[in-house]
UniProtKB/TrEMBL annotation:
Record note on quaternary structure: DNA polymerase III contains a core (composed of alpha, epsilon and theta chains) that associates with a tau subunit. This core dimerizes to form the POLIII' complex. PolIII' associates with the gamma complex (composed of gamma, delta, delta', psi and chi chains) and with the beta chain to form the complete DNA polymerase III complex.
UniProt-recorded name of the protein: DNA-directed DNA polymerase
A Pfam family annotated for this UniProt entry: RNase_T
Keyword Endoplasmic reticulum belongs to the record: no
MF terms in GO: 3'-5' exonuclease activity; DNA binding; DNA-directed DNA polymerase activity
Organism of origin: Frigidibacter albus
Keyword terms: Membrane, Transmembrane, Transmembrane helix
Length: 694
């Protein structure tokens, strides 16, 4: 049992026992001497001498104990803490041996050991870095490739936990909350289609089999088409890769086109039936005299007009819907103009181009081919050999106009050209098919200056703007999660198997019971022993009250900055979802948790997560005698907090997370492997902070 006590406690008990033994020996000696004398008159003198000698022994023992505690026991603890930090937390820098200056050669020997360890580690790190440079480059290329794959890609364990997702998957699953590693897939997708597809593949037993599925997001906003393929056997059964694409718009367009087609049949069928009846009447009365009475003629004209109007309207609506779903990309007008110029000049003709700074939704290759072929045929017809190409805005779309000085092109001749192939040997690609693809027409005209030309409208265009800064679409993954063992109980879980959410708050003051409120919450996730850089929670909070100037001087947040921020009830729900299923970690956790738990009723959720406090963890590793502020802890662990990030929620959160990650191997080195082991140890330091785990 004694080996579980701290060194300082054992030293204290040693000197306390020595003092007690000295008192006992002194008392026994005085008692024996008194009885040898046999003189009762000297008893007060013996008692007085015993008390004086006893206090002298006590004072001498206490003094020696203090010197021994300060210069031996505490020095050894500091020396051990520094050695553990450099051994297990990869802290660099020379070991401070000054606290152990009275320990003889122990301090220099420890410094030499840590220096040799650091040199060996650096040499090993350089060797590993050299050997892994090629692998890192391949990894970066793979990540870049996967981040640009135009479909969402997910990798899940056999029990449907996320271990990989790319940027497109964030867009597909997001709905306001990005996915997270080691989270249940069914937090984002409806369970039944995914589970059934997984079960079908397991029953098939074919490693090359794939299963197609249609699944909706949990929020119901999107319908996704997916394909699932099994991976190798994992700890929880075969995992799987799931590719997803959004077919919500495709389904809506398909339904709209189906409804339009049904309406076409309905609206054309009735006028056609009526015309059939009228024509039948005419056929029956053909030999009986004049059949075209004014009433019958009016009925025929009305039905024909109704039929023509219906066909015209339905055709226009079909063109509109077709242009919506046809997969056309935006192309710069300058790129179109350059392609058209190249084709026309290659034919020995002259052309000037004046494109507006716009983007056109079109098939650029087809538009270039159509306009350049029309220019060649105009030249072959002897109408012109020099052209002016204009691409300008025209309402919601754009107008492409090929103009020339000379005779106008007859409409019938243009119609004939549109029916001819644009390329020799490609009979299917005609000018008419290009127009059909783009749901448009083209016609000859003359402009205000009298120049002849051909007009080709494009239905959709937009102004070209400066490209915004690229959005980081990095892939997020940890393949070790595929084989990670999962324990049902947190107390029995290994520290590296748990998911942690490290968080920090900034507030209007230090007294929540007197009305102070949160103004900022930040958090990061730690999964499988590493901080996931892309999974960050950081938001301002409207406290519903003014922010004192003294608090603003600390964290830099003003009332104007939080005026439009959400209230704590909304932010609390978002943070509760972000921290779901994780161990909460904070520096001085009781302070932050009190602010959150005051609003649990309004949030509609309880923060009953297991909690670890880095103040207590620091006391476990470095001893209670040290300073355990965040600045002191990060300094001991070799972590630098940028000055601009200090006393910001996200800056302190990242610093706390990095410190926690360096404390974990030091805890394991002290024999604390499970969460329960750590919890039992931190509760011994309750006089520093209250443990919040019930």
């Amino acid at each position: 049992m004694m080996e579980r006590w701290s060194l300082r406690l054992r030293v204290f008990l040693l000197f306390a026992g020595l003092a007690a033994a000295s008192w006992g020996a002194l008392g026994a000696g005085l008692w024996a001497g008194y009885h040898r004398l046999g003189d009762t008159t000297v008893l007060p003198a013996f008692v007085q001498a015993g008390v004086v000698a006893g206090f002298a022994i006590l004072g001498l023992t206490a003094g020696i104990w203090y010197l021994f505690d300060e210069n031996v026991a505490r020095a050894i603890e500091r020396l051990a803490g520094g050695m553990r930090a450099r051994t297990h937390a990869a802290v660099t820098g020379e070991l401070d041996a000054s606290p152990a200056r009275y320990l003889g050669d122990l301090a220099p020997a420890a410094a030499a050991v840590t220096l040799t360890l650091a040199e060996t580690r650096n040499a090993l790190a350089e060797a590993v870095a050299r050997e892994t440079t090629r692998l890192q480059a391949e990894k970066d290329r793979l990540e870049a490739l996967l981040s640009d794959v135009p479909v969402g890609v997910l990798l899940c364990t056999g029990d449907h936990q996320l271990v990989f997702y790319n940027g497109q998957a964030v867009d597909l699953l997001g709905g306001g909350a990005a996915p997270g590693l080691d989270r249940r897939l069914f937090d984002y997708l409806r369970q039944a289609p995914v589970a059934h597809a997984h079960a079908r593949l397991l029953e098939a037993g074919d490693p090359d089999a794939a299963s197609d599925l249609l699944v909706a997001t949990v929020a119901g906003a999107r319908v996704l088409a997916g394909r699932m393929r099994l991976l190798d056997q994992g700890r929880d059964g075969p995992g799987y890769v799931l590719t997803l694409r959004d077919v919500t718009a495709d389904l809506a367009a398909h339904a709209e086109r189906g409804a339009l087609l049904a309406e076409v049949f309905d609206r054309v069928r009735r006028p056609a039936a009526n015309l059939q009846t009228v024509i039948g009447v005419l056929a029956e009365d053909e030999g009986a005299g004049p059949a075209l009475t004014p009433a019958l003629t009016g009925a025929m004209l009305e039905e024909v007009g109704s039929l023509a109007s219906a066909i015209t309207e339905l055709g226009a609506r079909y063109d509109d819907s077709r242009s919506d779903w046809w997969p056309l990309a935006f192309t710069r007008a300058s790129d179109l103009a350059d392609g058209i110029r190249a084709r026309i000049e290659a034919a020995g003709l002259e052309v000037t181009a004046d494109p507006a700074p716009i983007l056109l939704r079109c098939d650029g290759f087809e538009i270039v081919a159509l306009v350049s072929v029309l220019a060649e045929r105009v030249a072959a017809a002897g109408l012109a050999r020099s052209f002016a190409l204009e691409i300008v805005e025209d309402g919601a779309g754009a107008m492409v106009r090929l103009g020339w000085q000379g005779p106008a092109l007859p409409l019938g001749q243009l119609d004939g050209w549109l029916g001819e192939p644009l390329e020799v040997g490609l009979a299917d690609v005609t000018g008419r098919s290009v127009l059909l693809t783009h749901a448009t027409e083209c016609w000859p005209d003359r402009d205000a200056a009298g120049r002849a030309g051909i007009c080709l409208p494009v239905r959709e265009a937009r102004r070209a703007h400066r490209r915004p800064p690229p959005v980081t679409r990095a892939v997020v993954y940890d393949f070790d999660l595929l084989s990670k063992a999962r324990n049902a109980g947190v107390l029995d879980s290994r520290l590296e198997d748990l998911t942690y959410v490290v968080f920090d708050t900034e507030t209007t003051g230090l007294l929540p019971a007197q009305g102070d409120e949160i103004v900022q919450i930040a958090a990061v996730r730690i999964v499988n022993g590493r901080r996931v850089e892309k999974e960050v929670f950081d938001t301002l909070v409207n406290p519903g009250r003014s922010i004192p100037a003294g608090s603003t001087e600390v964290h830099g947040i003003t009332g104007a900055m939080v005026a439009d921020a959400p209230r704590i009830e909304e932010v609390g729900r978002q943070f509760h979802k972000f921290a779901e299923g994780a161990v909460l970690v904070a520096h001085n956790a009781p302070f932050d948790m009190e602010f959150l738990r005051r609003h649990e009723a309004g949030i509609g959720a309880s923060f009953d997560n297991p909690i670890l406090d880095t103040v207590l963890l620091s006391a476990v590793v470095f001893g209670q005698g040290e300073t355990h502020s965040l600045d002191a802890l990060t300094h001991r662990l070799g972590i630098t907090i940028p000055e601009e990030a200090r006393h910001t929620a996200i800056g302190d959160t990242v610093a706390t997370a990095d410190a926690f990650l360096r404390l974990l191997p030091m805890l394991r080195a002290k024999g604390m492997v499970t969460f329960g082991d750590v919890l039992a140890e931190v509760r011994k330091h309750g006089r520093l902070l209250k443990d919040l785990n019930g």
